[in-house]
Amino acid sequence: MFYICKWLVWIAMNVAFSVKLEGKENIPKDTNVIFASNHRTNADPPLVSCGIKGKHSFMAKEELFKNKIFGWLIRNLGAFPVSRGKGDTGVLDTAVERLESGQNLVIFPEGTRSKDGKVHRGHSGAAVIAVRANKPIVPIGLIFGEKLKFRTKITIKYGAPINPAEYVEICDTPNPRQLVKLKNRYMADIKLLAEGEPEPEKLPDNTEKEQADE
After folding, report:
1. Deepest in the core among 69, 72, 111, 131, taking most CB within 10 A?
2. If we measure between CA atoms, which residue out of 1, 132, 3, 108 comes closest to residue 58?
3. Is 55 in contact with 104 (CB distance < 8 Å)?
4. Residue 18: which of 150, 176, 165 has the closest Cα?
């Protein structure tokens, strides 16, 4: 059922939007991974999965499961509920279990959708999961205009995988400071993919002032 639902959603996404994938060669072929993306709309999970082979799971706020039909659909697409703002630690265990079963995991570290399209502060949940499961993190940048419309051009950029062992000692109770370093790394990569290189600061033009002084 998963692959049928995924195929139908893939068709729907490519009919509704003009989707371009970049950097698929960065996705490891020898292991399952955590895909960490910026978050713009409710369509992000199926959009991100357009370039993912095999089974994947993703977290979804528990309110989305109240609608029986929609809840059935997203469950069959690999979603599992999370209670936002309630310290739901069990969701981390579920995420690790999904990874250990061989599935990929899609996660949005910002925790909520960006209202201005910019990448905002992220959380360390992806870092904790990556360390506990010892799986690499593939950063993703979702790029499109202000709002999604029919045939909107969307670019999905997959970045180079990040090995958590390069930042955190792999164990069940990782060092919090090391987790922050790992989080800062994947958030920086997501921001770079989604927003591009920052424009260099312009130095003040003192030409006129210098001429006046002469």
Report:
1. 131
2. 108
3. yes
4. 150
Q: Quick one: tokens of 193?
A: 């993919």
Cβ–Cβ < 8 Å for 21, 140? no
The per-residue pLDDT for range 28-68, each reduced to its tens digit, is 999 999 999 999 998 898 898 888 889 999 988 888 899 88
Strands 56-61 and 104-107: parallel
Q: Whole-angstrom Cα distance, residue 19 to residue 130?
A: 28
All structural domains of the chain:
2-213 (3.40.1130.10)
Angle (CA) 118 121 123, round 5°: 135
**pTM beyond 0.85, yes or no:** yes
For 7-19, b where at least 16 C-beta lie within 10 A, e where not — what string? eebeeebeebbeb
